[in-house]
Amino acid sequence: MRGRANGSHVWFDPYGVHVEPGQTIRWTNRDPGNSHTVTAYHPKLFERPLRIPEAAEPWNSDYLLPGEMFSVTLTKVGVYDYYCVPHEHAGMVGRIVVGLPPATETVSGKTGPGLIPLPQVALDGFPPVEEIIAKGIVRRPPTGS
Fold it and tell me: How far apart are CA 53 and CA 107, in angstroms?
């Protein structure tokens, strides 16, 4: 988790990662001026659309102060989208691809009554699954472009 000292921009770096099932992912808040969360898109968490595999357990780090860490181990093959609760509207989102999901699998984004849709800036912020698999790690330039 990163951010400019003046708070004008926040981001996950990397924001796209390819891992094998059973690997543990750890986030560290390296932004000296903001607290952040790492929260899976899931209806059980803040009434958000499902954007992780249906059989996977959702996670929420709660607020991480500068220097604090959070880890999760992902065992189900698929695409996992996550966000920072206070900075989703700033486009602070990320994507993890676990294993090699079938080509027919897409991020469902299942919506329904009572679920809050993602803002367009968040939808635009996810790197393509194919790019993540090809590169292994996708980094966002600190300018946010």
Answer: 8
